[in-house]
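Listing S7. Sequence submitted for prediction.
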Amino acid sequence: MKYSIDQHRFGVNYTPTHAWYYGWNDFQPDEIARDLDSIAQLGADHIRLMLIWPYFQPNPKTVSEAHLVRLDTLMGLAAQRELEVVVSLFTGWLSGYAFKPPFQQDQTFYDLEYSAPPQELYLRTVAEHMRRHENFLGFDLGNELNCCWQAPHRSVGDAWSGHMLALAREVAPGGVHGNGVDHQPWFQPATFSPQHLAQAQEIIPLHCWTFFTGALQRSGGDCLHPRPLHLLSSMASLARAYAGDPNKPVWVQEFGMVPDWTDPANIPTFVEASIRNAIDAGVSWFTWWSSHDIDTRYAFDPLEYAMGLMTNERRMKAHAHVFKELAESYRGKPVASNPRPLPAPPAEHHTDAVWAWLDDRVASCSRE
């Protein structure tokens, strides 16, 4: 691993410019190489890469050799550019679409008795290939699994997550493995408990979207209000409170801002202030969503098209230059420790109670 969890690192969630993630089926290495060149120019040291699960495992007893070879090729291209790769396995949910293998029933996804054999086959097989690549950073169990499959009770989701994290550590020792859920389990009962997410992972991945969490709406749509600008740092404090450790490493695995939510002129300021606030709060890793805009010839929700640091033609946007400056200034530097204890997590687990807790942290940060 190029940098430890106690050092800052910066990366992007990779969105291919050619054919989006349908490119696993229309694989164009030259196009991917050009994408990775542009990502390296951002100052990124890693990418988060989505494996579309039904493409890679079309049947419960088989994993597609063709797709594994394509993954090996991409890993090699990333290594040539000194990019480490986090591989998201059970995807699942991506940019508003749900990709589900025909053999996997929604209601049994987290039922280990029913689902473990094909899921374990998939994880073990991909791990065999990842062990060949020195730039493999670790497994993300899946992109926002709770958006695609919901557990009947958090104890069921926690048991599944704990089992799969343990298996990932067994078959890919030395990797940084996590469960990249969205914000919902932190704000309300939703498939996984915040206690499990905070305590069962070496570094806690957080998805800190100002719009989806409600931070932007609670701030009158002003992305430069203290609430959105401190969302990364206040959610890090929330996760650490559940961990019972004010210095538990935190990885902001997804965050971003789009013109649909604010004047584009505000975005560079948002990027710089929110990242600096999070650095001051001791957040370790930052992974922007996403690397490139989506080609508008595909049908997506309009806000999905403009989430990249770069255009679909690989041109850097104004806030990409800010991201690059921060990456080059802080990458590899040690993460600051927090000498102060955190308050207990919210007494009630619902959105208003959590926001009251987060607002107290924002106010505290503003006073400091």
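Caption to Listing S7: primary sequence and predicted structure tokens for the chain studied. Residues 164 and 257 are 32 Å apart (CA to CA). The two ends are 34 Å apart (CA to CA).
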